[in-house]
Amino acid sequence: MLICPVCKNEYQEGYKTCSDCKCDLIEIPDVIAEKSKPVKAGMLIPFLLGLLIILCSPIISYQFTADFFIPDGNGIFDPAQFIWMLNAFHYSLLLVGSIICLPPILYWFKNRNSQ
Ligand SMILES: [Zn+2]
């Protein structure tokens, strides 16, 4: 890619001087030009979904556990079992949320690092 060192305008191959500043264009590698493009917005959706799961995991896991215990409940259940299940749901949701969040984070991190 060709760019003007003064006004930073981009030019297609074939141009030699900037039409505004009349100075010689400089060649910069396309790789750098690619990297400086804004991050794909598509990465934001899985990231937000994963974040939502992580943030809501205490509520969701409580709801799941309560649904599991209360319907067939004659009022007698082991509180330790309830807490075990609550934690199991909670950690599962945290894990799922983290896995969904991970690819966008790695993508952004990689892009940030290579600039
Ligand atoms: Zn220029």
Structure annotation, total helices:
3
- The shape, in one word, is rod-shaped
Question: Which hetero compounds are present in the coordinates?
Answer: zinc ion
Instruction: Supply the number of structural domains.
Output: 2
Strand content: 5-15%
Helix content: 55-70%
H and E order: EEEHHH
Provide the gyration radius in Å. Answer: 27 Å
Alpha carbon gap, first and last residue = 17 Å
Derived from helix and strand composition plus strand pairing, the structural class reads mainly alpha
List the strand order in the largest sheet. 2-1-3
Question: Can you tag this structure with a few keywords?
Answer:
single chain; 115 residues; mainly alpha; 2 domains; three-stranded antiparallel beta sheet; 3 helices; 3 strands; 58% helix; rod-shaped; binds zinc ion
Structure commentary:
The radius of gyration is 27 Å and the shape is rod-shaped. A hairpin with a 6-residue loop joins strand 1 and strand 2. It starts with a strand and ends with a helix. The chain is mainly alpha-helical and 115 residues long. The chain has 2 domains: 34 residues, no CATH class; 73 residues.
